[in-house]
Amino acid sequence: MPATPPKATYRVQVRPGFDLDATAAIVDYLDDLGVSHLYTAPLLTATPGSPHGYDVVDHRAVSPELGGEAARQRLLRALRDKQLGLVVDIVPNHAGVAVPAANPAWWDVLRRGRDSGYADWFDIDWDRGRLLLPVLADDPAALDDLKLVDGELRYHEHRFPVADGTGDGDARAVHDRQHYELVSWRRGDAELTYRRFFAITGLAGLRVEDPAVFAATHELILRWAAAGEVDGIRVDHPDGLRDPAGYLARLRQAAPQTWLVVEKILEYGEELPDWPVDGTTGYDSLAAVGGLFVDTDAEGDFTVLDTQLTGRHTSWEDLTHATKLAAATKLLAAELTRLAALAPEVPTEQARAALAELAAAFPVYRGYPPHGARHLATARSEAGRRRPDLVVALDAVTRRLRNPDDELAQRFPQLTGAVMAKGVEDTAFYRWSRFVALNEVGDSPAYFGVSPAEFHRFATAQQVRWPATMTTLSTHDTKRGEDVRARLAVLSELPGRWAEQVKAWMEYAPLPDPAFAHLLWQTAVGAWPIERERLHAYVEKAAREAAASTSWADPDPAFEQALHDVVDLMYDDPSLHDELTELAAAITPAGWCNSLGQKLVQLTMPGVPDTYQGTELWDNSLVDPDNRRPVDFDVRREMLARLDGGWRPPVDTDGAAKLLVVSRTLRLRRAHPELFTSYRPVPAHGPVSRHVVAFDRGGVIAVATRLPLGLARAGGWCDTALSLPVNEMKDLFTGRVYSGGETPLHDLLADYPVALLAPPTASVEAAS
């Protein structure tokens, strides 16, 4: 653990249009909000126009589209003036190659082939011939459009280098002499000769296991860390690396005092390996916190509804096996081919089938020693059950996979992680729509909610093992924003009403894919009111990701038109619009209650809390790029000033109550970290005690309401009370002082559905 981990971070999606100078301009607001560190998207030079920065093309410089080094220095000065630190995002697994001329290393590889000084940078299978670049139209005559201009090959807007001594003749003849071959975009998934990030051909895998590649791609970031200009590093997608443990050991050695968190997606019950890091980026916390506000008793009702709507019982296990197998054999066919070639003792097609089945049956993203053997055994057993005809091939490749020194064993985990991500997060999450509030990165739709006891066990373990891990509720990768999920959680308390309503809507405005229709209606209710164009963009992306009735590779115009017609009906049909608005309005107050509750829990539980840009107010964002929309910081700054002037808003006022919760909690954590050093559940006593979750962090007590509709049906808090310490405590949100002992919840939670109790002196200091 670093000497001083952050107290709290605030994530900003720096990008062209909101560069480092724009970020520097909100540092005063972040300081007032109460964070200790700014946490940025990647800063290094990315593909021109990149909206996210995860496609780095030059590791030697700050992106000029973000303002370059001069703007970074101005941001550092602004942060230092407010005594705030900086956490940066890095991308070790891959580099951007969609625009070859923008990436000097890739350009040189294309020009010189194996003789390039950068040939070892990228994970290229040179033994399979020329480097395939899938950029051509799906037309046998596409190469007729190739031109030779200024000593380069040009295909429409694409530019490619020409090797020395090969530039004579027409464009086709010159092309045939290069170290690369331009092919149809459709051949990428099946025939590509370089490892990618998932199935994105514009992101080529880096070989950071090579010390020279690590040094070259990390020199600038590590120089910043050594100079004290970076306090924390977020590592993107470590599961894509050949040797994540070795990489993280090298990174920790190079930056021993830096807070280090990894974007590691843990499956239900899986623990983070004992790596030299401070924790994850918080998806495990997101699942635990979000599930706490879902009524676990409704699982049966939603399962029945799903069966009625789709006309069949859908098994999550069978669905994800099918989607993962499709990912392995179609989207990632090129990677599968490369692995099968490493097992020549098995007939090629059998090796491919066996490896694909093992990847589809692998229960987690990837295995790590010594636990990898257990996961591999589970996958072997399940693969054998599903494909007994492959028993010989399965046994042969499994023997190879048990040997950690075998190249097949070293590369196979890179496949299983990609198969899990593409098969589950990017496909099954859009197909299985039983209850989409749980279809979230780090969560599992198969587990319907989290009980308070289960949450307390999770938080207690986190305090012991990973006290400096990151916690979060929203990121640039979440499928729905935190407040959308919080409102959808209300439906778990209204299974009967929801079933009746969604059946009526689906009958009135039918779609040929009822599972996706259920996802559409849940999403609309969760985000309503939402601008028409945003919902249109979302449903088209979601339907193509599901790849059931349409897809990215082969869009179905008829289905997509039907989908857009349904969306238009939501806005243009008066009765439908009124019904949708009425239901959304009916569940919104309980959704606000859930939002405040889950936010307080996330901000106060063990770990370093992150606030994703803009989510300190109500936020109805959906999947990217929707969740990267511009944030109005002027509105937030003005509202925070009103709160600091003594205004105590009602819950339904433009998200001001959420800003109150966020700012007061973050200020307390920053001013008094000594009050957040342990974890103990605080019991409630009375007839509705299941509707409250409370815990003591070592001097500060967080209290949150859960399942608010059930609480209302029970008549409110009645005689339920919380056992508080005997000393006086003050609620930071209302200013009320409580003398301890059995404190009635109807008093404690009279104004807000949450309370943050601290010693009076600490709370006054934090709010000053």
Automatic annotation (TrEMBL):
CDD domains, sorted: AmyAc_MTSase
Entry-linked InterPro entries: GH, GH13_cat_dom, Maltooligo_trehalose_synth_4, Trehalose_TreY
Segments passing through the bilayer: none
Domain of life, per lineage: Bacteria
Domain Glycosyl hydrolase family 13 catalytic, residue spans: 13-398
Pfam families in the record: Alpha-amylase
PANTHER family: ALPHA-AMYLASE FAMILY MEMBER (PTHR10357), MALTOOLIGOSYL TREHALOSE SYNTHASE-RELATED (PTHR10357:SF216)
The protein's name in its UniProt record: Malto-oligosyltrehalose synthase
Source organism of this protein record: Micromonospora tarensis
